[in-house]
Input
Amino acid sequence: MGIWASIKGAFRSPDDISAAVYGAYEGADVHGQELRDWLPSLGSANDDMLPEKELLDARGRSVQRNDPVVASSLELVKTGVVGTRMVLSSKPDAALLGDDFTEEVTNKVASEIESLWHVYAESTSKHIDASRQRTLTDMVRMACVNFMIEGEFLATVEWRPGQKFGTKIQPVDIARLSNPDGQMDSRTSTKQMIAGIEYDADMVPMAYHIQTQHPSEFYLGSGERKWKRVPARKPWGRPMVIHIREHLRAEQSRGVGRVVSVLKTLRCLKKFDETKLRNATIKSLFVATTESNESPFTIYQQLGMGGPSAGSAMDPKAVGKGIVDVATAHLNASRAYEKSGNVAKVNDGPRVVHLMPGTKFNMHSPSDAELSPEFDKSWMRKIAAALGMSYEELSKDMDKASFAAMKAAMSMTYQTMKLLKSIVADPLATTVFTVWLEEVVERGLLKSLPPSARRSGWIYEGNNLDGLANCSWLGASRSSVNEYQDMQAAKMRLELGLSTIEDEAALLGKDYSELIQQQAREAKEYQKYGMVPPPHANRLVSQSTAAQAPGTDQAQASADVQERLAAVEQFVEDAQNDQ
Output
């Protein structure tokens, strides 16, 4: 038996031979032509990202300014995550706050917190911003844009005593976060300095080193670059720096933007579009020339320009000598043109050689760089997929989209917006709300707190701050293609107990408590003026009347149940008819 036969006998099948020689995973093949030259490095999260982050951020900002696709996606993020306003829904946790926080007291505290918060965060006075230029909604929108472009958002918590609210938020350009004096990253057994952030041995951020001005504007100051060390927290735990980023890998110190995966595609598509525009410009230009053995005067007559009259400038006798002079000048000028190499540019792009009159110029046009519309759509779909959005909403191309396709597309984008809200908007708003709440409690601005919660230092005891700061945030409303069907679906969820009024109102970007209070006010107004109220207000009026007339509660409840059952049956029947 030969050597090769002995080797073959050691394996059960030819696949085992391939696995032994080339590896068990085809994705790790280094011999085939497809993967032979693909040998990426395997570095840590910071080693892979930090050396290239500055360039990635700069290119991201460039496409933000100049690329309409990116501009459209950012507008979609701002409207889909935040909408018109970030609305606070305060929900103090009575289980953490103690027995003094009864349901009635908790509701009063929540209502007062929401009223004070609106003055602080959303009023035209803009108390929340250290520079008094932005509201909370403005900051959250900016944070969402920064997250898409640079992958992170940075702000410091400032204290301005003597003002209505001393707690202020100062957004910081992420380019200002860096190691002092351009130092290299360093690591010791007790301390680490990575990309402007100090960590302890457990990788807990201890301080942030922020340049006093943007790196590109150091010339506006003393000409000396300076850094300020900002502790991450006060000794008692109050945050001093808000750093929003998504951790894609362990030990990742900084963020990377969502647009980086499509930067190359966006750049190539932009160049391709510019080339098509230049080609179209060149094709719109034309030159008319004549070639003939006839005299110029005959050609002029054939073109309808008329013949020369005696004694005029075009009289053959008068121009005879001039023709000889022109011919001589033409030869001399041709030689000069050949040496000078005159070239004309079209919009700093294609170049066209300028030849002397009478010289033949033949243009051989290359094949048109025209591709089918499906080419652009294909790349747009890839960009939309990378950004987590639907092609239809990103491109605003809805000509051929069916109703079902539009519903699916909107649902996909909505899920992305919910994710961004949970990563960026909610953490930012909750952190700002928590540090502000610490101030208003310590200063005694919350009058509805029970007496036991008004003593100094109460907010720092146990879990009181976390319990009082418990909340949720209402952002943008969910888009709708068929509002009637969406309302019917919401009604079905409520009937089956799968949802609540709070959940359904949140999908519309509304606070359910404000909604109910407004409905109650409207019902009383209708009753006051003897007007016929809308169905929901009529129900409130009927319930109020029933409360004044004993014995009618049960009958009214029975009628409501019958009405709801009839509505459910009608909804099911309509749905079956639609199918």
User: Anything to note?
Assistant: The CA atoms of residues 197 and 208 lie 5 Å apart. The longest helix spans residues 403-442. The longest strand covers residues 152-159. The chain is about 50% helix and 10% strand.
